[in-house]
Amino acid sequence: MRVLVANRGEIAIRASMHVRLADEAVRLGGTGAQEYMDRYEVRFPIGLGCSHSYYCSERIVTIAKERAVDVVIPGYGFLSENTHFAELLREAGIVFAGPSPETITEFGLKHRARELAILAEVPVVPGTSIITSFEEAALEAKKLGYPIMVKATAGGGGMGLRVCHSPDELQNAMQTVKSRGEALFKDAGFFLEKYVEHGRHIEGQIFGNGQGNVLWFGERECSVQRRHQKVLEEAPSPFVLEHPELREKLRVASTSLAMSVKYKSAGTVEFLVDDKTGEFYFLEMNTRLQVEHGVTELCYGVDLVALMLKQAEAELQGRVGLTSTEMAENARTTPQCHAIEVRVYAENPADNYSPSPGLFTNVSFPKWDNVRVDTWLENGSVVTPSFDPLVAKVMVHAANRKEALEAMGKTLEATVLQGPLCNLDLLAAIVKADDVLSGNTTTGMLDHFNYQFCGLEIKDGGLYTTVQDYPGRPHRPSGVPVSGPMDPLSFRLANIIVGNREETEGFEITYAGPHIKFHGPAIIALCGAPFEFSINGEKAAMWARHVISAGSEVQIGPNAGSGCRAYLAVLGGLPNVGSYLGSKSSTPSLKWGGYQGRTLKAGDYLPLDKAASASAATITPYSLPHDLIPPIEDYTTVYSLPGPYDTEEFITAEGRERFFQTKWKVAFSSSRGGIRLDGPPPEWSRESGGEGGSHPSNMLGYGYPLGGLSFTGDAAVVFTADSPVQSGFICPQTTISCQLWKLGQVRPGDEVKFSQCSWKQAMELEHQLERYISDVKAAVESHGSEHDRPLGEWEIEHPIAGTSILYERGEDLSRDLPRFVLRQGGDRGILCDFGSQIFDLNTRARVQKLVLEISDRTPHGFVKVSRVHTMSVFVSFNPAIIDQGSAMRTLIDLEMQLGNTKEFTIPSRVYHLPMIFDAEECTRATARYMETQRPCARYLPDNIDFIKRNNGLEHRDDVLKAVRDVPFLVLASSGLMGLPILIQVDPRLRLTVPKANPSRSHTPAGALGLGGNTNAVYPVDSPGGYL
C-alpha cells in the first residue's frame, strides 16, 4: 500500500510511524527546516506560496496519481475536511483515509450538523439556522439573550467564532466571522448560538467502519483554551470523573450521531457541558483526526492512526470497511490511566499570544517512559510565520490525575527550547494553577489567568546590540570566528558588578543603545564607554549595580564620550539564548549564535533567570569606585608582539621602524569584522608575493592570530572578534591579548599607536590586568569604596622588542627535510611554517601529519584544534600551563619525529560541485568594490579578463578551462564558516594573480575566487581578497 501524507509538521511525523516502504510525503519548499521529511523515501515540492500550498487539491491529487499512490492520509487542518479534495481522490480511484465526501459536507456546515444532531436526538445549544442579514441577527440574538456566539458554519477549531456580550458587539463580530469563513473555508455563512458562560469543552472520540458499527474511545476534556484554541487536553475528563453518569450519556450521544450517518474512520463529537448543571449540548462533529488524539491513545491503549490506515486498506480491497470482528478487537471500555497533553506554541503570551517565528538553537525533551512528545522540532529548526505556530505536543500518563499533573510539571521543567519565545513557561504555570489542580477548568479560565512573564522586552534595539559571552569561541575548527565581546575587560567587569560569573552572556551595545522594558525584577550594570543611561526616565550611573522593579524601562542612548561600546549585564544572564558551537555569542555577519543570529530589534522578548529575578529583593545597589574604572581614550597605545611575518625578508628595517612611529587613524569602515587603519603603506623589501600573489603583501594562506595586524595590499586592518581565522596577506604584528579591550573601544577618527614588547612583558602585563580584576571583585564583594593598592600601570616602562622568528631550520636535502620556521603568532600561538612560500605537495603532507599528531596526541598545555593551511599550521597553547619557550621546543621535537612523509596517506572524499562562469553576482560585487573602495586597478573592471592577461592566456574561456571539470585538492577549511582553500592537482593548470588591494568588504556567497595560485569558495557573504 503506497501512502501519501498530505501534511507537514508533527502530524507528518506521527503518520510516518505507520508508513513503511515506498511511502510518500508532500513537501513544501521555503517553509524552513523540514527535518521530518527525511523519514520518507520521496518528497515533492508543491510549488505555491506558503499560505496556500497545502490547500492545492488538484496539485496534490496529480502527484498522487503520478506516483501510483493508493491512500492519502491528510492528518488534521488543511485538506483534512475538504469535500472537494476527498471527491477528487475518489474520482482518481485513490482512498481518502477519512470519512466520505458526503459526511464531510454534512458535518462541515455547522447549521446542517445541528440538524443531524437533532434528528439523532442529541441535545444542541439553543441557536438559529443560517443568518442572512444584520437585522435578522439582531432579532434572533435578542430572542436567545446575550451573551451569544456568532459562528461560521464552515471550518472549526475556533477560527470562525466570536462571543458577543451586548448588541454593540454584534455587527463587528458578524463581519469578522464572515470574512474569516470566506478566507479560510470559502463559505461566509454563519449562525448564532446561546453562549454558555461557565462551560466546559468535552468531546467524544469515535471510530466507524462505514457500516453503522461505531467504537467509542471515551471522552477528552479540552476546556483550557486561549482565543478558543485548545492549550491543555486530558482524558478522562475531570468533570466526568466527578459526574460518572455523564460518560454513558456522552457515549450514547456520540455513537448515535455517528451511526446515523454510517460514519467511517476517526472522528470527534464535541460537546459544551454546563459547569453548573451538568447539562451537555452538541457543538460540532470534527470529521478528522484531532490534534489531541494522543491523549486518547495513551488513556485507552489504542492507535487511531493505525486504525485509520487499516480502514483505508479495507476500502482499497473493495470492502466497505473493517469487519465486526476487527472492530471488536479494537474495542475499549474503560480508561487505563490518566493522560494529559499540552500544546507548545512558538508564540508570545506576554504579547497577546502573537506568533514568535525564528530559529531554535537548542531543543531537548525528556525521554521518560511516561512521556510522549509529538514534534517536528529539533536543533536548527526554523519556525516560519506562514503556518500555525504549534511546534510540539507534550503528553504524559500516570495512574491518576494528580500524578499526571505532577509528571507534566516535571516534564515541562526539564524541557529546553532555546530560540524564539514559546508558551512553555505559561504551560508550566497553568499545570500548577489551583483551578487546574482542582479540575475547575471552564473555557474562560485563561481569560482571567494571572500569568506574569519574567523577562525583558526590546522596545528599540539600538544601532547594533548583540548578545555576547566571554571568551566566545576560541579554538574552534573550520573557520569559526572567536566572536565574544570586543572589549572583554568592560564585559567581565559588568558581570562581576551584578554578581554573575565573568563569562555570563550579556548585551554588547555599539554607538547607540537599546530601549528595554523589564517585565520582572532584575539586577543590571552598564560598563564600558560612556553612554546616556536612564532608568524610568531618571539618569543612572554606569559602572554601578542597579536593582530595578518589574515594569521598569531602561534607556541607553547615544555614546557620550570616548570609546564606542558598552556592556549591559543582567544577573542570571539570558537563559533562553541557546549555545551554538560552545558559546552564546552572536556573529551577525554569519547569521549565527546569540539571539536569532542577529542584532536585537524591537519586538524581541527574552526571558530572565527566575531565581535571579526573585533574588532582587535581597540585593543592594553598589557603585564601583572611580579610580577602579579603566580609562577609555581617543588616543591609545597598544602593545604588540612581532610576527608571524615581521622580518626584513618582507618589510625593510626603515619600514618597520616607521610603522611604530605612525599614529594610525581608525577608518570609518571598521567593525567587529576588523578594524581598518589609515596610514602610510609599508616599505616592502620584495617586489611580489610569489605564489601567494604578485603584490608584496600577498602570502600563501595561513592561520591568523586574534589581534593580528594585516596589510591587505597597502591597507592595514586588525583582525578582531568576528574576523576570519586565516588570511593570505602578511601579518607583521599581533596585538597582545590583554590589550584587545582597547581596540574594542576605538572608533572612526581615533588614533592608535603600536609599541613592541617581549612575550614575557606581555605576560607580565596580563598578570597585572588579572590582579586588577581581582581587586574589582574584592571591592564588589565587600561593597568597598576604597582598595588596598592603586590601579596598576597600563604601560610597560621599558618595552623590549622581541623577534618574530622563534626557531628556524634550513632545508636539509640530505635528510629530505624542508625548511621549517616557528613564527611567533601573538602570545598564545606559534605558526609552524614549512618551505619558502612555494607550494609543494610532499611538504604539505608533512604539515598534515603534524596536524594529526597535535590532534590525536595533544601535548600538555597545547590546544587540540590547530589551523592548517597551504604550507603551514597555526598551533595554540595555554600560557597559564606552558610558556612559549617550552611550547617551541615541544613543536621542534614533534616535527623531527614525523619521519618520512612521502608514503603518508590519509582518507579523502570527492565532491562534484556545479558552477556558473562569470556569474552576475560576482560582476555586481566588483562594481560595488569600484564604487566604494577602489575605482581603478589592473584587475578592474573585469577580474576574468585580468586573470587571462596575467597568465598569458588567449581567450576568456581558457580561464574556464582551468577550473571546469578539473580536480582540486582542498588544502584548508578555514577563513570564515569553513571556507575551503583549493589548488589544482595538475600544476600545469594553476593560475596566479595578486589579491585585491585593498581586500573587498563584500564577496557574494558561493563565489569561486583566485588569489596567488590557490582558489577559495566563499560559503557566505563576507570580506575577501581573491579575484
Automatic annotation (TrEMBL):
Superkingdom of source: Eukaryota
Location of region: Disordered: 674-696
SUPFAM superfamilies reported for this sequence: Cyclophilin-like, Glutathione synthetase ATP-binding domain-like, PH0987 N-terminal domain-like, PreATP-grasp domain, Rudiment single hybrid motif
* InterPro entries from the UniProt entry: ATP-grasp, BC-like_N, Biotin_carboxylase_complex, Biotin_carboxylation_dom, Biotin_COase_C, CPAse_ATP-bd, CT_A_B, CT_C_D
A molecular function (GO) term: ATP binding
Q: Which SMART domains match?
A: AHS1 (SM00796), AHS2 (SM00797), Biotin_carb_C (SM00878)
Q: Which UniProt keywords apply?
A: ATP-binding, Biotin, Hydrolase, Ligase, Nucleotide-binding
Q: Where is the ATP-grasp domain?
A: 114-313
Where in this chain does the record put each Biotin carboxylation domain? Answer: 1-451
The record's section on PANTHER family has: CARBOXYLASE:PYRUVATE/ACETYL-COA/PROPIONYL-COA CARBOXYLASE, UREA AMIDOLYASE
This one is known as: Urea carboxylase
